[in-house]
Specification:
4-stranded mixed β-sheet; about 525 residues; 4 domains; alpha+beta
Length: about 525
């Protein structure tokens, strides 16, 4: 039996995986449970962290902000953008010196285009694969200790220069003794210990930052630290990542999503700190010109991504949790390869059904249903008065077109909404955060690969396709008859900030609106500084 019969792997792999013969798969549930159980201890705010490490962290971040603040007070910046760029660069340099935990946090921020300042996102993108690599002797020792053998007993060659180096690990090209070309992911030494130490420092500092930093938005700093801990702890054991690769591959196959492939992990060469996997070559996800020259339909690439991502979350409760350009590769035949499964979201049945209700009620403009689903996902407290939230956020009123507001009015509206949400105790659960982050990435990907895609038509088409393919399941699980479901794009239009009479909206048109909004808000901020 071919492993392509049960998972979305490449057509001809260097080896065949047999589900019942993968020793590392049998321990992953225990490893995940242990990782989840560890989070409360790591994020307990009352525990005093190691003072030496805390002094280093506070000193380096404080120095970065301090130098920037002095330069700003002396009027050394020509504009607000230049000021933000300087601060972002100094923070990035400090973070790279602080190591894995803070680099990983920067990587997550770098995927939040639209959620964080542009200058910060662009600077932190440098933390994705430009982190200084470990010396190859260190890599050799890690592999040998983890696999329990000499390097030459397994590999004919391992490229000493890293193909990519990030916070937790780095990747090297290699060739097995039988000539098979592979890539090897190797964890940085001492990273597990350092991450745990830094999480305790973050947890101790977080309560002192409540109400002091605007980036807290929908979750206070302690909640953000807890969310970050939940995300990073599971990345520290590559056996869980290998299992994620298999599970996502199975989900994509079960959904009939033939536009995606997953590289095969090696059936035996997987350990806590070493992961050998199939090597896949293709186009960089940002290489639009190269894909067009090869005859690849980039609109189809985007469309497949939107459908597969949504179906994985809503039907199986599993989806890749860290989409960005470095984790995607487009093959010559137009399929997309998913890479790096360290962050993979898993929803239990209750939360998956809540997610399903949230998406279905959004397409039918059922405001109460949307709020109830968000509550059940953990974004709102259980005793929340849903009708009061709808009223306070003015969701039941005609949406405001932000392009008709002045900069001052836009800032006031954002502050009003954030204040109302904080008043209700709103927070961002891990799975919802990863889903939103991925949606933000897809938003940016549309800008590059399919700027003239009609967003409203695509949402309507995907919604109807989803109802047709999964109607029976939707009826069984959440009691909504998908056959009679009428797609109402009013809530989608409201979310995009366009008039309800709008019938067509390309991404290019949406971006022009966003640029106008940002220009007005920047002008308002600048005028207040004078």
């Amino acid at each position: 039996m071919s492993d392509c019969d049960w998972a979305a792997f490449t057509d001809r792999g260097p080896w065949v995986l047999h589900q019942d013969q993968l020793a590392w798969m049998s321990v992953t549930e225990r490893l995940r449970a242990a990782a989840r159980a560890e989070v409360p201890a790591l994020t307990e705010p009352g525990r005093v962290p190691r003072l030496g490490r805390m002094a280093v962290v506070v000193g380096r971040l404080g120095a970065a902000v301090g130098v920037w603040w002095v330069r700003k007070r002396l009027g050394r910046f020509e504009s607000a953008e230049a000021s933000k760029a300087d601060l972002s660069r100094r923070l990035r340099l400090a973070i790279e010196r602080l190591g894995a935990t803070y680099i990983k946090l920067a990587q997550i921020i770098s995927s939040g285009e639209g959620l964080f300042p542009t200058e910060l996102v662009e600077e932190f993108k440098r933390c994705r694969d430009r982190v200084p690599a470990e010396d190859f002797d260190v890599v050799r020792r890690t592999i040998e200790a983890d696999l329990g053998c000499r390097l030459g007993d397994v590999f004919a060659h391992v490229e000493p220069e890293a193909l990519a180096a990030a916070s937790i690990a780095q990747v090297h090209r290699a060739r097995l003794l039988d000539g098979t070309e592979v890539v090897v992911k190797v964890q940085r030494p001492e990273v597990a210990r350092l991450v745990r130490t830094d999480l305790k420092i973050m947890s101790w500092l977080a309560p002192h930052l409540v109400g002091r930093i605007p980036v807290a938005a929908l979750a206070n700093p302690p909640a953000l630290v807890e969310l970050f801990a939940e995300t990073i702890v599971e990345e520290l054991d590559f056996r869980m990542e290998a299992a994620n690769m298999v599970d996502v591959g199975k989900v994509l196959h079960d959904l009939g999503q033939h536009g995606y492939v997953v590289p095969r992990p090696h059936p035996e060469l997987v350990g806590r700190r070493t992961l050998v996997m199939e090597r896949i070559d293709g186009f960089n996800f940002d290489d639009v010109d190269g894909m067009h020259a090869a005859g690849i339909d980039t609109e189809a690439v985007i469309r497949t991504g939107m459908v597969a991502f949504m179906e994985g979350a809503l039907i199986h409760g599993i989806f890749h949790g860290d989409l960005h350009g470095g984790n995607l590769m487009v093959l010559a035949d137009g399929r997309t390869a998913l890479l790096d499964f360290g962050i993979t979201a898993r929803l239990d049945d209750d939360r998956r059904r809540a997610f399903l209700r949230m998406m279905i009620t959004a397409t039918t403009n059922d405001l109460t249903g949307q709020m109830a689903a968000l509550r059940d996902l953990g974004a709102l407290p259980r005793d929340t008065d849903l009708q009061a939230v709808i009223s306070d956020l003015r969701l039941d009123q005609e949406p405001i077109d932000p392009t008709t507001l002045t900069g001052e009015e836009m800032v006031a509206e954002v502050q009003r909404v954030v204040k109302a949400l904080l008043g209700y105790g709103a927070r961002l659960p891990k799975e919802l955060m990863l889903y939103v982050k991925n949606m933000v990435f897809l938003d940016g990907a549309i800008a590059r690969l399919a700027p003239d895609l009609d967003l409203l038509a695509e949402v309507a088409s995907i919604s109807m396709m989803f109802a047709q393919r999964h109607g029976e399941r939707i009826m069984t699980e959440i009691g909504i008859d998908a056959a009679r479901m009428q797609v109402d794009l009013d809530s989608v239009k409201a979310g995009l900030g366009v008039d309800l009479s709008t019938e067509r909206l390309t991404y290019r048109e949406l971006q022009a609106r966003r640029d106008l909004i940002q220009k007005r808000m920047r002008a308002h901020v600048e005028s207040n500084r004078r």
